[in-house]
Amino acid sequence: MNLCMAATYDPDPRAPLGFRVPFNLESGEVIEKTLAALA
Amino acid sequence: MRKLGVWLPPQYDEGGDKRRFPVLYDLVGFTGSGLAHLNWKPFGDNVPERLARLTREEKMGPVIAVFPDCFTALGGNQYVKFIRNRKLRPTTSRARSCRSSTANSARLRAGTSRLFRQIIRWLRRHPARHEVRQDLGAVASHSGDAAFDFVYWADWRTRSMSLRVFRAPKRKPGAYDARAEAGRKGLAEGLDDGRIKRFLAHVWKKEKVSMKETMCS
Lengths: 39, 217
What we know:
heterodimer; A: 39 residues; mainly alpha; B: 217 residues; alpha/beta; 5-stranded mixed beta sheet; 37% helix
């Protein structure tokens, strides 16, 4: 669900999979810049 | 080519070829397909049965209802691209030759869940776009989870743990510099370092996806 939502809310054709996730994949920290895309 | 469910009102064949009907596009949520709304439903009406009942009780006027299948490999429906590319409208009119109204005000979309709520958000941001003005008369969202950042915030740490299995290289036992590892290229921008791609490749090979994997995808 989370990846699907990320693809819907924060698409980026330049990203490896065409979207960004709202958290750091290594640490799980929320990324404030991408969070704005979800609000 | 995908199947497209279309429900025609009882009045469809009354009034001859000149009569036109509004079109209601029923857009479902995560892991759904419009075709699922045609299924048998316990203790209640499925969507076509509800439309038939409400039409008969004159609580709504007759409409043509369309149930598209927009399912994607990520488990959900990417409706913004769907609307932006204006894919449904010509497909519907060509494939079914329905007597649908050509008035902009007669094209309605109703949907559920967070994925559909993105349509509302996109429409509000782009009210002047040609496809918005040409294709939509009204939109209704039955979304219960309209605060994605709030609802799923707590979930993201769990998902990052789930995806760690697909990390490359694998983490080694012993000392671990978490700050340095989290600062690797692209991670702070939300970009995939390959683990999402490997996770999806793993899931797509499976015959049955677990609930945990579904929540992640």
